[in-house]
Design brief:
The structure is a single chain. It contains 4 helices and 22 strands. It is mainly β. One of its GO terms (biological process) is carbohydrate metabolic process.
């Protein structure tokens, strides 16, 4: 009966406007009760606590500020009510966003990377498209759960004339930090994954370089726009070094039937690539995933699904040496308590495809 109750509660959540959801759910929370998009989990060994970061949602925290909230858990199943770990200071250039927060340890501190924008701060038009200022900013804290304070007055790390999002930290084999991000399709038409070298203060110290373009992935599909143009999306780059030393990147775009969690591999083993596109990991209107190690040693992936009204989804993964692979859906943790369209099925050899 517990699962039935969860499904009923979820149905209410998905059909109730956010403004009407005034009272946050009581802890402990389960993943189907947690609003989140672009989830990022830090497994803190010292405290044996999982920290799940996502955009602040007033319906969950009761806090209306623009920023990042964090849930905590000891077992990946039962979670505390979230609290705000970072709030954008008043007077900062940005007016909206707080997308794709990530937390990385660097030089004895914790750094939060998160994307903001201002639609009124227009950039030069790109054909009929009208890009505006968007970029990943940096905040720093002494503890993993904050509170975080902005670095360099909240100015984006990438050049402000580039419309960028979903910045992540990659530290190469020589110990040099890089910002890797998606260059927005709204400005480029074909979205790219790009990298900028950073200094030890995580400030840019060189020009951007393109790693690959969205339309290089055989499975990716362009998205038709109202003006008749077709654009290609890049989202959510995230890195993992396998046990054999292969460098792979999780990233997302759109396929034939919705959002896709994909994976690319560097042929050189380094950030410079060239990058080859592998078969996607999950195609069930799912994406913006990241990998982490559970305290029992399992390699795990968290992503959001579906894209609209997103909730968290956990997978047990396998380090296959030259790539990572999905082992199974961790339904004992996330309860699979949210709907998926019957025509959208995982595309793995062991699973039946539904013809619609």
């Amino acid at each position: 009966m517990q699962l039935q109750h969860l499904l009923a509660a979820l149905a209410v959540l998905l059909t109730t406007p956010a403004a009407a959801q005034q009272k946050p759910a009581e802890a402990p929370l389960l993943l189907p009760q947690m609003q989140l998009h672009d989830p990022f989990i830090v497994a803190d060994k010292a405290s044996r606590t999982y920290y799940l970061f996502t955009r602040n949602e007033t319906a969950m925290t009761g806090d209306r500020r623009l920023g990042t909230m964090v849930y905590t858990s000891k077992d990946l199943k039962h979670w505390t009510r979230p609290r705000v770990a970072f709030a954008l200071p008043e007077g900062t250039w940005a007016k909206s966003g707080s997308w794709a927060p990530e937390v990385h340890a660097w030089k004895g501190k914790y750094y939060l990377f998160t994307t903001f924008h201002d639609e009124a701060a227009t950039l030069p038009p790109a054909g009929s498209r009208k890009p505006y200022r968007r970029g990943t900013i940096l905040a720093v804290a002494d503890k993993v759960d904050g509170p975080y304070r902005v670095v360099r007055n909240g100015e984006p790390i990438a050049p402000k004339e580039r419309m960028t999002l979903d910045g992540t930290l990659h530290v190469d084999a020589a110990g040099k930090p890089w910002l890797v991000y998606a260059h927005e399709w709204l400005q480029t038409r074909v979205g790219t994954i790009e990298a900028i070298p950073l200094d030890d203060s995580l400030a840019a110290e060189g020009p951007p370089r393109i790693l690959f373009r969205a339309n290089q992935a055989p499975w990716a599909r362009g998205q038709r726009q109202p003006d008749g143009d077709t654009v290609w999306v890049t989202d959510g780059p995230e890195f993992y070094r396998t046990g054999t030393g292969a460098l792979v990147m999780l990233w997302s775009s759109y396929g034939e039937r919705g959002y896709v969690q994909s994976i690319a591999r560097s042929k050189s083993g380094g950030l410079e690539g060239p990058w080859e596109q592998l078969d996607p990991l999950v195609r069930r209107d799912s994406g913006h995933g990241m990998l982490f190690r559970a305290f029992d040693g399992r390699l795990m992936m968290v992503l959001h699904r579906p894209f609209t009204l997103a909730l968290g989804k956990l997978y047990e993964m396998k380090d296959a040496g030259d790539r990572v692979e999905v082992v199974r859906e961790a339904t004992e943790l996330d309860l699979e308590a949210y709907p998926t369209h019957p025509c959208i099925q995982p595309h793995t050899p062991s699973e039946r495809k539904v013809e619609c």
